[in-house]
Design brief:
The protein is an alpha/beta fold. About 30% of the residues lie in helices and about 25% in strands. This is RsmD family RNA methyltransferase.
């Protein structure tokens, strides 16, 4: 895993092999951040990274100047790894070991960008819960966006607040707005 841009550009991060993750590929991550970079000024953002895994997306946001990042994952190993790297690189990422759906149900904070990268094999009904909970709980700030990464075989276009999608290889980013 590599940080593409910002303060830690080019830095290779080696996550433990035993983590139950599928990190976002560099090509897809670069495409996503090109889209976001044209829309947002990163140092002003408040970001939530759901199903954070290795912290790949959180680290990229932090390297680009985002100081308010929350990463949520159920796996203790993932959370420990994100916390360790965040401390080593002085990133200040807040981590929560929690079930994402429980976190979304109880959260009171609002964010500019919410990124969710669940297992591609997750049931469609669970994919559908992510935007439902985000919008029911009014979790996006004005002009905020929810980005859900999923396999190209999954379609989220039928959901309320769906705006558009972008494909990068076998990965798709679906964008949701208020």
């Amino acid at each position: 895993m590599r940080i593409i841009s910002g303060k830690h550009k080019g830095r290779q991060l080696i996550a433990p092999k035993n983590l139950p993750v599928r990190p976002t590929k560099d090509m897809a991550k670069e495409g996503l951040f090109n889209i976001l970079n044209n829309r947002y000024y990163f140092p002003d953002l408040k970001v939530l990274d759901l199903f954070a895994g290795t912290g790949n997306i959180s680290f990229e946001f932090a390297s680009r100047g985002v100081e308010d990042i929350v990463s949520v994952d159920l796996d203790k190993g993932c959370i420990n790894y994100i916390s360790k790297i965040s401390k080593e690189l002085d990133m200040g990422i807040k981590t929560f070991k929690n079930n994402v759906f429980t976190f979304l149900d109880k959260n009171n904070d609002r964010f500019d960008i919410i990124f969710a990268d669940p297992f591609y094999s997750m049931e469609l009904s669970d994919f559908e819960k992510i935007p439902a909970l985000v919008f029911e709980n009014n979790m996006l700030l004005e002009d905020g966006v929810l980005v859900v990464e999923h396999a190209k075989q999954t379609s989220l276009e039928h959901l309320p607040h769906f705006d558009n999608f972008r494909k990068y290889g076998s990965s798709v980013f679906s964008f949701f707005k208020s």
